[in-house]
Amino acid sequence: MRIGKVIFATLIIAGGCLAAASCAPEVADDGPSSDAVAASKASYEEGERAFRERNAADAVTHFRAAIELDPNNTQAHRMFIFASQDLDRSEISAELDEDARNAAMKAAADESFENLLALYEEWSQGSPDIAAYKWAIGQLYMYRDYDKVRQYTNEALALDPGLADGYSTLALMADVSGDKNRELELLKKAVEAAPDSPDKAFYYAASLHQADPALWREKSLEVAERFPESERGAQSLYWLAYRTGDRDERISIYEHLRTAYPPEEFDWSGSGMTQLANLYSESQPEKALALAEQMVAATAEEPDGWSATHWNERLAFQQNVMKGNELIANGQYQLAVELLQDTTIPRFVDANVFHETRARALDGAGQTAEAYEYLLPLAATEPTERVRGAALFYAVKLGKDNKTVRADIRAVLDEGAEELEDYSFERYDNGERVSLSDFRGKVVLLNFWYPFCGPCRGENPELQKVLEKYGPEGFEILALNVHPEEDEFVLPYANGNGFDFIQLRSDMEFAQSEFQARGMPTNFLLDIEGRKVLRLPPIAGTQVRTLELQIESLLPEKSAADGLVSDLVAPDPEQAENEEPGHAGVIASVDPRELQAGTQALMTIELDLVPGTHANSDSPTDSALIPTTFFPDSVEGVVWEQVIYPRPTEVIEWYSVDPLPVFEDGAVIQARLSVDEDAVPGKLDVSGQLRIQVCDADYCYPPERVPVTAAITVIGQ
Prior knowledge:
With 717 residues, this protein is of the alpha+beta class. The protein has four domains: 2-226, Serine Threonine Protein Phosphatase 5, Tetratricopeptide repeat; 245-392, Serine Threonine Protein Phosphatase 5, Tetratricopeptide repeat (Alpha Horseshoe), CATH 1.25.40; 424-575, Glutaredoxin (3-Layer(aba) Sandwich), CATH 3.40.30.10; 584-715, Immunoglobulin-like.
């Protein structure tokens, strides 16, 4: 990382300092002037532009200039740190294998930390009254030394009790420490310190969800009303609707989101329209059709984008479902069967009505057994009340009783069950070791998580409710922390929130190697024999009832007699997950396709993502996220010169403290290569693997490695 050091030092000198440890921005005793604050904001915006354009060197220069003009600009401090870290990472060779690259990334992070810490300590010593310097040092220590985070943040607040970001930082620390009351108190102080900040208002409102549902609803609506031009307003309405139990109220809130925040202008509103279309499809198909038509028109400017593709597919899907019902009403059952069996179900679509319609068509065509056989795997892979009820209806027509149907569902689960080693783990509470075999006779949820994982903390209250319903006699949750460096937070967080999971020590190496669990949270259900039966999506919204049905299907018959089990239940086998299409598509090409030995070419890798998702950028700001990385293969006669990643966009997720740099909808990645002068003429395949981790608003999925191949022809000189 010597080059990174030279660049970093050069930028500091260019900013007017002779060395990193010899210069601190000067500010008048009464603070920067209004002109300086305005100039700082302008420089910050230039830095953001440069950062988006992947020009880390310019970004560092502009963010540093913003700090010099206004040392109290915490946004500039945050982005100066991010951009400086990104600058060092950019010097890592593209030809390193994964292990070497990961080691280089860690070394770059350590070097950035040391450089920035030295700089900020000198700045703070030169201007000891500037609170933002102390706060920034605390940010540097995040994920490294949490006592230092608290120390420097508290020192910053002692200097400036109006430092809103200081309260936000301490609120996060209180959250992961299980002190909900303290978290709410600090988030409220952040709002009071920065009343015009949509970020601070949103986080305070969101934190009230479990503590005070009525106030949560009031504050969420207030955020949407006060900040009509902010994504935070749309995000607030999205989550209010998503977490509202009453179906009609949920529809009403999504409709308000649609009106107040046009979906073609606000990402969170666009995501909300997918949920609204699902709700409409259950009882108001004409509205579902009209909404799909609106979204097709709204996305028409980018016809090849994933949003346009999704809504066009959804429109065709909705039209086919409605046509199928029309054919059934006219007694044309076989035509309906043929139409629906050729209909593709788009991703992120609630297909309950489709499944019911297709089964009715089969039954009407005299194929009742086929209707049941069609629904049975769905009742075992997508356990909803509607699919379950439909399966039971046709089972009764075939003379099957509830016990037989349960046996049929269990047979599907048994087919995909996987034996596990008898792993053992150390408990956090008493230091004793427990093994998976200790829990045989119970259904077990293995929950891979870590305290600073926002989505993990988001699903834990739902998991606790499920545990209270089915445990402890028949069901247990084993929570495995995969970040040992966060051990100090595990028990305070769990105990402070009243979570009764058994907390166990683990690490990422175990999670990845033994369970292929990379994105957190990742959950698995084990049956009473200790076999791995299901890999689960995040537990939120309708997935809570799905989890309950899955557990019920795995409980022994005596639990059914005790009233814990519904008449018909349906868990989600791994087989269905394996058959799902991936989250991304990749197309590669090389320009020029024909080139002389000794010349260069440019490989272009086009990454397409499903709507509603994004891929982490090549330099995510959260160390737990997997960066998008192209790993070129070693090809004889070819030298890979450079990999060029596009500028990311920033998204704000409900669980993120800061904006996350991501690739939305897709990305175009380029890899520059050269052919040796003595390369043999002829056709040559240049290839590699694109590692991506795709996330949506709830979850980061396990990383994928997508093969990338393109052909070139080498012409002799």
